[in-house]
């Protein structure tokens, strides 16, 4: 069976972040499993639990965070990109895991389909 890995580089203010979430939800409801969600670049901000609640972009981040928490999706965040943007272990939302780029290489080598949302 084909597994999917999603690369999310769109930050919370970009339409691609919401499109990625909708795709992840659709995959979850389908027979095609998600192997890995990998947040990189500005996409790591979707895992930042301390985003300003007054910012409309934070709604997209909150939606991601609730979905990851509720589904136990395999949500990984590039540690280098995260630290560059102020996302640390202390500010990481529940359900997300800080990892190195090796985890993304694993997703690429695992086979299946890769979809990028930037």
Automatic annotation (TrEMBL):
<protein>
    <submittedName>
        <fullName>Multidrug transporter</fullName>
    </submittedName>
</protein>
<dbReference type="InterPro" id="IPR027396">
    <property type="entry name" value="DsrEFH-like"/>
</dbReference>
<dbReference type="Pfam" id="PF02635">
    <property type="entry name" value="DsrE"/>
</dbReference>
<dbReference type="InterPro" id="IPR003787">
    <property type="entry name" value="Sulphur_relay_DsrE/F-like"/>
</dbReference>
């Amino acid at each position: 069976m084909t597994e999917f890995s999603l690369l999310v580089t769109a930050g919370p203010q970009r339409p691609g972040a919401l499109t990625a979430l909708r795709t992840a939800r659709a995959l979850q409801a389908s027979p095609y499993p998600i192997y890995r969600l990998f947040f990189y670049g500005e996409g790591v901000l979707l895992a930042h639990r301390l985003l300003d609640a007054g910012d409309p972009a934070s709604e997209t981040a909150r939606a991601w965070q609730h979905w990851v928490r509720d589904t136990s999706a395999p949500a990984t965040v590039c540690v280098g990109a995260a630290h560059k943007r102020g996302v640390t272990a202390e500010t990481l939302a529940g359900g997300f895991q800080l990892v190195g780029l090796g985890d993304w290489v694993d997703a690429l080598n695992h086979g299946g389909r890769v979809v990028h949302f930037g």
